[in-house]
């Protein structure tokens, strides 16, 4: 039984560390683009401002999505650490009984 527990604990550590070693790449659009350079050569208009604000809003929404994903990953990591801490406490309890 103890060997099974140690094997399952080792498997848990292996799975937890394998996820942490391969972060997903974050792709972001450049803040400035070629059409913006064309827009600066002509007088400012309300449609140009609306287009800029729309691009800014899209960029902010992309940043929010990225931040939400990062927070989700951090919460998962915290849960993993809590489980590891509980397993370590269990090992201490079992070693004192033995």
Write a structural description:
- The protein is an all-alpha fold and 98 residues long.
- It has three helices and no strands.
- The protein has helices spanning 2-20, 34-40, 46-97.
- The model has no long low-confidence stretch (mean pLDDT 78).
Main features:
rod-shaped, mainly alpha
Bin the strand percentage. Answer: under 5%
Biggest sheet statistics = none
Provide the low-confidence segments as ranges. Answer: none
Helical/strand content category: mainly alpha
Task: Give a brief outline of the structure.
With 98 residues, the protein is mostly helical. The mean pLDDT is 78. The protein has helices at 2-20, 34-40, 46-97.
How are the elements arranged and paired?
Blueprint: H1 2-20, H2 34-40, H3 46-97
Helix pairs in contact: 1-3
């Amino acid at each position: 039984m103890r060997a099974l527990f140690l094997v399952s604990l080792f498997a848990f550590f292996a799975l937890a560390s394998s996820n942490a070693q391969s972060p997903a790449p974050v792709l972001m659009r450049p803040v400035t683009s070629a059409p913006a350079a064309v827009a600066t050569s002509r007088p400012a208009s309300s449609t140009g401002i609306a287009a800029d604000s729309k691009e800014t809003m899209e960029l902010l929404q992309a940043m929010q999505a990225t931040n939400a994903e990062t927070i989700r990953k951090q919460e998962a990591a915290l849960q993993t650490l809590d489980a590891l801490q509980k397993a370590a406490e269990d090992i201490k309890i079992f070693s004192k009984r033995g």
